[in-house]
Amino acid sequence: MRVLNPLMLAGLLVVCPLAAFAEDAPSADPDVTIRQDGDKTITEYRQNGFLYAIKITPAKGKPYFLVRADGSEGNFVRSDQPDMLIPAWEIFKW
Predict the structure, then answer these.
(1) pLDDT tier at 79 (50, 70, 90 boundaries)?
(2) Which of 80, 76, 57 is nearest to 67 (CA)?
(3) pLDDT value for 36
(4) How far apart are alpha carbons 6 and 78 in whole angstroms?
(5) Does any domain span residue 66?
(6) CATH number of the domain within which 62 lies
């Protein structure tokens, strides 16, 4: 029993620092998701799961960015027309 206690303490001291590395550290690189929606390409930029910008590339016309109007969910504005608020109403939810 006397030998077991120091071995348990030594094992605990070895395992504790490894537990700190087990958590996911925030990444500096954004996660980029590209998808097609009809005739336009939508590119979503996320940082640690937080959606902060959307790039819309239509088949005809110039691409434009939607960025967060404020910190709240779902309020985006066009970066080239910041006065135009993009509505994100939810009509139905199943």
Answers:
(1) confident
(2) 76
(3) 93
(4) 63
(5) yes
(6) 2.20.130.30
